[in-house]
Specification:
EC 2.4.99.17, alpha/beta, nine-stranded mixed beta sheet, 23% helix, Thrombin, subunit H, 2 domains, QueA-like, 353 residues
């Protein structure tokens, strides 16, 4: 299986730079696998499309304000992208794995000042994909509060802001986050969930649809391209996930009763399929996933999927191709391009049923 098999042409102006005016107003391409049909809806129609007694499973991770801008002692401007903490915080200090840009003149001991209450001390360069180990030095009582005051939402690189006003920054803080996000730990949003509102969730519950939440902290791998032409040689980055006992009970009960499990987003799919592969069922756990799903793949847990449109040659495009069939997915993407759907994180979505 070749990487070039998963390429497609996308006009640059179809890459969404801002979210839809309202979350639920995004367009939705519906792929019916049994009928091999494609139809055009809006996300608010999801309430009519999901059958009563189905179980909707969502990823409730929260995006960290992981992008920091600072200045070296020389005056040079530096961007620090927080990836994950590697040690428990002590008072006013926390060690993290990060990306640094530009990194050419950065070395051990370099100090980057972000603000009066936050500086970054470089410890060393790591061997893995240009990552660094740094120490965050902060004067506030709580690191998360400090990051909220000084950090920026880590939008993906294809969202290019010519101007970053306070209003735009505020918009990103609100809209690049799901309405049910709970615990901060991700460097990218589980974007399929961005279309949901509290009202839509309430309508689904009133209709008899069950709701379960899992947590997978979206890591750097979401931005990393596949570099090998032979897809099977690609290695996924590890991402941590958690399934509570309540969620496990809901999912196992739904499976045993033959109810449909509808995953919201590829991160939810990877969480559930990883857990099943490891334990033979969904059980309460705190674990990690390196699962790479590509055609052909037999899904053990999920039936249907709500997902955004994915980048060419990406592992996420391979995952949806495994679920709906590569030819059907590429037919749908061609239709989405011709109908000028908006693509990627802030874009429209599809429902594979």
């Amino acid at each position: 299986m070749l990487l070039s098999d998963f390429d497609y042409d996308l006009p640059e102006d179809l890459i969404a730079q801002f979210p839809a005016d309202k979350r639920e107003n995004s367009r939705m391409l519906v792929l019916n696998r049994n009928e091999h049909s494609i139809s055009h809806k809006h996300f608010y129609d999801i309430v009519d499309l999901i059958e009563p007694d189905s179980l909707l499973v969502l990823n409730n991770t929260k995006v960290l304000p992981a992008r920091l801008y600072g200045t070296k002692e020389t005056g040079a401007k530096i961007e620090i992208f927080l990836l994950k903490p590697v040690e428990d915080s002590t008072e006013h200090e926390s060690v993290w794995q990060v990306l640094i840009k530009p990194s050419k003149r950065v070395k051990s001991g370099t100090i980057v000042k972000v603000s009066d209450e936050l500086s970054v001390e470089v410890i060393k360069r790591l061997e893995d994909d240009g990552e660094w180990l740094v120490k965050l030095l902060y004067s506030g009582e709580n690191l998360l509060d400090v990051l909220h005051r000084n950090g920026n939402i880590p939008l993906p690189p294809y969202i290019e802001r010519k101007m970053q006003t306070e209003d735009i920054k505020k918009l990103d803080f609100e809209r690049y986050q799901t309405v049910y996000a709970k615990d901060e730990g991700s460097v990218a949003a589980p974007t399929a969930g961005l279309h949901f509102t509290k009202e839509i969730l309430d309508k689904l519950k009133a209709k008899g649809v069950g709701i379960a939440y899992v947590t997978l902290n979206v890591g750097l791998g979401t931005f990393r391209p596949v570099k090998c032409e032979n897809v099977l040689e690609h290695k996924m980055h590890s991402e941590t996930f958690e399934i509570t006992q309540d969620a496990a009970d809901l999912i196992n009960r739904a499976k045993s009763e033959g109810k449909k499990i509808i995953a919201v987003g590829t991160t939810t799919v990877r969480t559930l399929e990883t857990a099943y592969q490891k334990y033979g069922e969904i059980k309460a756990c705190h674990d990690h996933s390196e699962l790479f799903i590509y055609p052909p793949y037999e899904f053990k847990v999920i039936d249907n999927l709500i997902t955004n449109f994915h980048l060419p040659k990406s592992t996420l495009l391979m995952l949806v191709s495994a679920l709906a069939g590569k030819d059907f997915i590429f037919e749908a993407y061609k239709e989405a391009v011709s109908q000028r759907y908006r693509f990627f994180s802030y874009g429209d979505c599809m429902y594979i049923c």
